[in-house]
Amino acid sequence: MTEHPLNLLAPTGALPIADGWREVTGSLDIVFPYDESVIGTGPLASIADAEAALDAAERSLPEAAALTTEQRKSILLALTERVREATERLEHLLVLETGKPLVDCRTEVNRTIVTLQATAEEASRIHGETVPLDVQELGRGMIGYYTRKPAGIVVGIAGFNYPLLLATHKLAPAIAAGCPVIVKPAPHTPLATLELMAMAREVLSDHGVSGSLVQLISGDAQVGERLVTDPRAQVVSFTGSAAIGHLIAKQAAPRKTLLELGSNTGFIVAQDADLEAAARTVAVGGFYANGQACIAVQRIVVEREVAAEFTRLVAEHVREIVVGDPRDERTRVAPVINAASGNRIRAAVAAAVAAGATLVVDGTASDNPALIGPTVVSGVARNAELWAEEIFGPVVAITVVDSIAEAIEVVNDSRYGLQAAIFTASLESAFTAIEQLDVGGVVVNEMPGFRSDIMPYGGVKDSGIGREGPRYAVEEYTVTRMAMIRPTARR
Question: Which residues are catalytic?
Fold first, then answer.
C-alpha cells in the first residue's frame, strides 16, 4: 500500500456529534482513485448517531439564534483564517480522497476561503424592511415591518466532487443565519470536510459557543433519510444527482429544500466566435476536475460554417492535455472517482458510437477502469445518454446547427438547466442567448463552468430549485417575521 501521511485534526473513528466527538462503530476505507491505495478510514454513522445529532441540534436552537451579528461574523472570519493556514494540508487531502488534479484542489481550497470570508460579510447584512400597511383602510394608523429569523436546523448534503467547497456553502450560511447545521458528506470523501468541522469546532470553543451548532454525519442512504425526514430539519440543502435530489424533496416535504442537481451543460459556438479561444476554453472547461463538475462543458453546439475548423482546433488542444497522477503539477485529467463511474462513462461513449457517432479523440482505452482520458465525440444522437444525460466525466460531444436560433433550441431541449455558455462577437447573439436560454446562468465568451462564489447559483427544470451563494443561501436559511403594530388600541 502506498503511504499517505495525513496528519489529521479530526480523531479517528469519531464524528463531531453534540458537543464532542462521538465514537462510531461503522467505517469505510477511503481510496485514492489514482492507484486504489487506501489512504485512511472514514467513520460511518448509524441511525442512532443521526438521531443524536438531531437531538443536539434541537437543543442548540436557542443558542444559535441568540448569537449576535458580531459573534457570527467573528466566528466565520476566524474559520477563514484557520482554513487559510491549513491550505496545503487540505489540498493534499482533497487530491487523495477525490483524485482530482492538484490544480483543481488548489482552486477548491481558494474558493472555500473566499466563500467563508464573503459569508462573514453577509452576516451583517441580514435585515428586513417596513411595509406600508395603510395601503388598505384596515391598516390606517398601523406600523408594519418584517425581520429575518433563523429558519431552524439545516441539513446540508454535499457531493463527492468538491466536498470541502460544497460543505462550506452549507455550513457558512447556516452560521451566518443563526441556524444549527448538520453536514453530511459523501461517504467516500469525508476527510477534508471532517477537518473543516474540526476547525469550526475549535473556533466555536474559542468564542464560548457550543460545538453542537455544527455537526457532521457520514453514512449510507438510510442515515441520510433519517436526517431529511425528521420534521426538526427545517431546511435541507443538497448537491448531487437529480434522481437523489427528487427523492430528498419528496422525503423532506413540506419543509424547504434547496437543490443543486447538476446538468448536461450546453456550449454554443457562433460562426463569428473567436474559434481559437473557444477551443481552448473547451479544453479547460470540459475536463477540469476530471470532467466531474456539474457545469463542465458537455454538449457543444456549433454553427455549420465553422464546425470543421472548430472541431479540428478542439481536437488539437485536447490532445495536449496531460493525463496522469493527480499529485503532479502538470496533470489536468486523472482517473474519475471509481471504476464504476469509469465503466459507466465508457459504456455511454460506446453506445453513442454504435449508434453512429464519431470518435474525434478517443480517451477510453486504459488498463485502469477508472481512467477516462479526454474524449471528444461528434454526431451524437440527441436521445443518446451521452447527449441527454449528465455524463460527469471527461467527455464532450459536438453537434452542428444552421443558426443561433437553432442552437438555443437544441440547448434548451434538455430536462436540465443549470448554466450554459455562448461564444460570439455579436452583442445581439449574446443577449438573445441570455434572454432565451432556459438555464440559471448564461456565460458569454467564457466557459460555462465559471462560478463566482458570491453570485446566485442554481438551476431550473431538473437542475434544481433555490439558489446558493452566501447572500442567497442566508435568505434561504431564514424566514420573515412580520410585525404589525397599532400604537394605540382602538376601542
Answer: 260, 294
